[in-house]
Automatic annotation (TrEMBL):
Pfam families (alphabetical): CBS (PF00571)
Species of provenance: Caldilineaceae bacterium SB0664_bin_27
Protein name as catalogued: CBS domain-containing protein
Record keywords: CBS domain
Highest taxon of source: Bacteria
Length: 141
């Protein structure tokens, strides 16, 4: 690889799945399950980043496993609550030309597992701990 292979853009997932803050928690959960991802950037109608929701955020927003709610009530809860109730607004981001070192430092400093990659507030990718591991393995071979 070229000298710039240590930039986020070479390791990120391009054009990640996204959701809107008005989407239900059930829709976000289903999208994550269908595409086997653990976080979704939350965008507005112009594709501008407004937040991020992770699988962990959804778990925290869910009713406790010792709840007295029925399965019907739990499903109703998931279908009615919007992503905005569980998302992190204004998440930490990186640019495509940011170095892997900077991205890793941000992930460590903020104890997060992924960063939306943005250009002029538009989501162009997502960089996660899995991408960091791929980078490390590639560099060591």
């Amino acid at each position: 690889m070229g000298s710039d292979s240590s930039q986020v853009q070479h390791w990120m997932t391009q054009n990640p799945y996204t959701c809107h803050k008005e989407d239900s928690l059930a829709d976000a959960r289903d999208l994550m399950a269908e595409h086997r991802c653990r976080r979704l950037p939350v965008v507005d109608d112009n594709g501008h980043l407004t937040g991020i929701v992770s699988f962990g955020d959804l778990r925290q927003a869910a009713p406790s496993s010792v709840t007295t709610l029925s399965l019907f009530e739990i499903n109703y809860f998931w279908a009615k609550l919007p992503v905005s109730d569980a998302m992190t607004a204004d998440p930490v981001t990186v640019a495509p030309d940011s170095s892997i070192d900077i991205a890793c430092r941000l992930m460590l400093d903020y104890s997060i597992g992924g960063l939306p990659v943005v250009v002029e507030r538009k989501v162009v990718g997502i960089f996660t701990t899995t991408d960091v591991l791929r980078f490390i393995v590639e560099q060591s071979t």
